[in-house]
Design a protein that fits this description.
Strand content: over 45%
Shape: elongated
Helix content: under 10%
Radius of gyration: 29 Å
Number of strands: 46
Number of helices: 5
Structural class: mainly beta
Distance between the termini: 85 Å
Length: 806
């Protein structure tokens, strides 16, 4: 007992002596604009560049450091959206305590990190991606994320809403770093443009990311409502075209103590019209297609973040999406007295209806170690997709003698898709210049699809089908990077085990694949000076066929064209090398880059005559693997503020792909199709000009022009496309409310036209409601900033091509 008492007394004396020879630093961090406290700002104490200690400010913006040695220090204070503060502190025998009260100023111009919403958008080059910080100029582009995508450098949106990056549609689309299991074209129409904070273009992803996506990843980061108390925002808009379309969303947030509740609900509904024609030249057969989509979709999200303590955060949420669209397709086919045919006309009325429901459930945990930047993240995600489609077809055939025959039947498709993802990520800054990252992931997908048709022209044995497509992916990665004064590098590798099992009609036809692959990556960055940066990067990527591309079940059909998948599709692998240059200007920035790719077994669309059709008039639209291809290209974008009231953002990109593959050529004499090997060079050019004019603090105008050059493809030749938009924006209520007005495609010039010789000579053109007027309103209400759990990037694992013309 005496010994224990002596030890306790000794420890007390030592502690007292230590306290007498140490100092304390405390203070308060506020916003300069309104003196509101900034919660969870990062405060670091450094000694000769090395971090001695670091804390986050509490809910009142206060912080305290104790037991600091009596010497000189540097204090750094950072918070997203604000300028970094750097100051000096001297602790001595005469001054053992210091008080640092700092008011941070909001960053309204380009930063090395993240920008807050500014009047105009900015572009920055990071080590593995290009970041477009979305300003108010882009949010006037339209009601949804889909509307503004064509304003982003290197990104295109076609008439079906499908995204492409650098002319290639093999691209992953993520929302806040995660796949949604909702078709990207549909999802982007539901996200209000005003909800987008920034868009990341990851054209050459590192080994840290899943290796899917040949042309890269488009990651859309949404604003996180991070205010104290109860607050939120409302966004609504009307698009006037042939008919009016409506969209609206409400974001709510409630922060109290250690718990942050958040929720979102959105709705998108309206009728969208498309029309087009396809003309076969060798027999003068014309298909006129009229499409009306009546869409009605709902999306809501609810969840919470729980701050266990300063180093541990738990987050849960669920995301639910339900759509109940109706599609009406009228196909009118004129044969124009075609030789060897007694048919005069075929008219088909088809209708596609049925709900599509997706439920996502997410659990995430983050641990922050004592060392700055040292973190451990775990995330579990489960998604359940249920799709039901009822289709009816009413086809009337009129012959030359005016006799008619009718075929009426219905189709029923029921599909389920369940995705489970478990992910662990670890980041360890070994020192100020060196960072080690590692992680592991498991992704399990289970799908089941039942197809029933009453088509009397099909064999009875083929009228009921079942198709399953299951994948198991296990992967682990490691990256290592170092930074020096002007030079930095990062190398990494991802090891992956991939297994797929496809099964048609309970074992009638099977397709299995199982392999282990290594995906390396490397980045070299050289800062010529503070305003000029060069980067060289390399990565190996893969595009795996998706369920939509593999299931041999009717996706859509007209009397002469049927779309279905190919279960024997192979993955395509890509080796990519890029060089990028970024220059920061006093009034803007300039970025440019070149790339070279080698592509094996490229997945592409293909048309060939239906082998079950003796007349040679019907076609099958499906997917196939082309042979080895190479591609190269360049892009350049410029962001410059000419005057206080006028800025411009021009950009161009060019890509050239050497393609080699098999197409089919129809022989009218024998009424057979023969395979033909073709080698071509596909060149694509895109140009954009975005110009903003600011009349005063409240009113601004926008002028946008777009041009996409003609391309000659392996099977189809696409014609040029171009348009011009004008818009305006007005703010009121102390910048809490914004009213946007935009006139899209002023001269009504947007259309998709093509011609081809394969499998026989034909041409076509499709138009949609591109000439529209959009009126939108956004109202924000909120308080001071807090900190939410930051989540890692997540990606889907398949090539998402599908859908076809509609």
């Amino acid at each position: 007992m005496k010994l224990k008492f002596f030890l306790l007394a000794l420890l007390g004396v030592i502690s007292t002596v230590q306290a007498q020879n140490s100092g304390t630093v405390s203070g308060k961090i506020t916003e300069k604009s309104n003196n509101a406290p900034i919660s969870y700002a990062t405060v670091s104490i450094k000694d000769n560049g090395k971090v001695v200690s670091g804390v986050n400010t509490d809910d009142n913006g206060d912080f305290t450091f104790k037991n600091l040695a009596l010497k000189s220090y540097t204090i750094e204070i950072q918070y997203i959206g604000f300028r970094k503060y750097i100051g000096s502190i001297i602790l001595s025998e005469n001054k053992k305590s210091a008080t640092v009260n700092v008011s941070l100023e909001e960053e309204a111009t380009q930063l090395k990190g993240v920008n807050i919403v500014a009047e105009r958008s900015t572009i920055e080059q990071k080590i593995d991606r290009k970041v477009v910080n979305v300003g108010k100029d882009l949010t006037t582009a339209g009601a949804s994320a889909s509307d503004i995508m064509n304003n982003i450098p290197s990104v295109n949106v076609d008439q079906d809403g499908k995204l492409s990056l650098r002319g290639n549609d093999n691209v992953r689309v993520l929302i806040d770093g995660r796949p949604s299991n909702i078709d990207p074209a549909q999802l982007l129409k539901q996200i209000p443009s005003t909800s987008i904070k920034k868009i990341e273009l990851i054209t050459n992803p590192s080994a840290k990311y899943n290796p899917e996506g040949m042309s890269g990843i488009i990651n859309i980061i949404l604003h996180k409502n991070a205010n104290t108390g109860f607050n939120g925002s409302y966004s609504g808009g009307i698009t006037f075209g042939e008919t009016a379309k409506y969209n609206q969303s409400l974001d709510l947030n409630y922060k109290t103590g250690k718990v942050n509740f958040f929720g979102n609900v959105g709705q998108n509904f309206g009728k969208y019209q498309n029309e087009g024609f396809m003309r076969r030249l060798d027999q003068d057969i014309v298909q006129n297609i009229d499409v009306l989509n009546d869409n009605d979709s709902y999306l809501y999200k609810i969840g919470m973040d729980y701050l266990i303590d300063d180093r541990n955060t738990l987050s849960i949420y669920t995301n639910q999406n339900k759509s109940n669209g109706k599609g009406f397709v009228d196909t009118d086919i004129d044969y124009n007295n075609v030789a060897d045919s007694d048919i005069y006309n075929i008219f088909q009325k088809s209708k596609y209806t049925g709900p599509d429901q997706v439920g996502t459930y997410n659990l995430a945990y983050k641990h922050i170690f004592k060392k700055e930047g040292h973190t451990l993240d775990f995330e579990g995600n489960y998604s359940d997709n249920k799709e039901t489609q009822y289709a009816s077809f009413d086809t009337r055939t009129t012959k030359l003698d005016n006799t008619t025959s009718d075929v009426i039947f219905e189709d029923h498709i029921k599909g389920t898709r369940k995705l489970t993802t478990l992910n662990l990520d670890y980041v360890n800054p070994l020192n100020e210049k060196t960072t080690l990252e590692a992680g592991a992931e498991a992704r399990l997908t289970r799908t089941d699809n039942d197809y029933t048709t009453g088509n009397p022209l099909m064999p009875i044995a083929d009228r009921v089908s079942n198709y399953t497509y299951d994948t198991d992916i296990y992967s682990a990665y490691v990256t290592f990077g170092q930074k020096f004064k002007k030079f930095s590098y990062q190398v990494g590798a991802r090891f992956e085990s991939y297994k797929v099992a496809a099964n048609l009609n309970h074992g009638k036809d099977k397709f299995d694949d199982d392999y282990i692959t290594l995906y390396p990556s490397a980045y070299l960055t050289y800062n010529l000076n503070e305003k000029n940066t060069l980067q060289l990067s390399y990565s190996r990527r893969v595009d795996r066929p998706s369920l939509e591309q593999t299931k041999p079940i009717r996706e859509f059909a007209t009397p002469l064209v049927t779309s279905l998948g190919n279960p024997e599709l192979r993955p395509q692998f890509t080796n990519s090398v890029e060089v990028n240059y970024t220059k920061t200007l006093e009034k803007g920035s300039f970025t440019a880059g070149v790339f070279v790719r080698s592509i094996n077994d490229q997945i592409s669309r293909i048309l060939y005559p239906d082998p079950a059709d003796a007349s040679g008039e019907k076609q099958i639209m499906t997917f196939t693997n082309y042979d080895n291809n190479t591609a190269y290209g360049f892009e350049a974008s410029f962001n410059y503020k000419i005057t206080k009231w006028w800025d411009i953002q021009p950009s161009i990109d060019f890509s050239s792909i050497n393609q080699e593959g098999i197409v089919f050529l129809y022989d009218p004499a024998t009424k057979t199709s023969n395979p033909l090997e073709r080698k071509i060079t596909v060149a694509a050019f895109n140009g954009r000009m975005n110009s903003n004019f600011k009349v005063n603090k409240r009113l601004s105008f926008l002028l946008f022009g777009f041009y996409r050059g003609a391309t000659d493809g392996l099977q189809n030749n696409s014609h040029e496309m171009y348009k011009m938009d004008i818009g305006s924006r007005y703010t009121l209520l102390n910048n809490k409310m914004n009213i946007s007005l935009r006139f899209n495609d002023v001269f009504n010039t947007m259309k998709y036209a093509f011609d081809t010789m394969y499998p026989y000579p034909q041409l076509g053109q499709f138009t949609w409601e591109s000439q529209t007027v959009y009126l939108g309103l956004t109202y924000n209400f909120g308080g001071a900033k807090i900190k939410n759990l930051q989540r890692k990037q997540r990606e889907d694992n398949t090539n998402k091509g599908g859908g076809g013309m509609f």
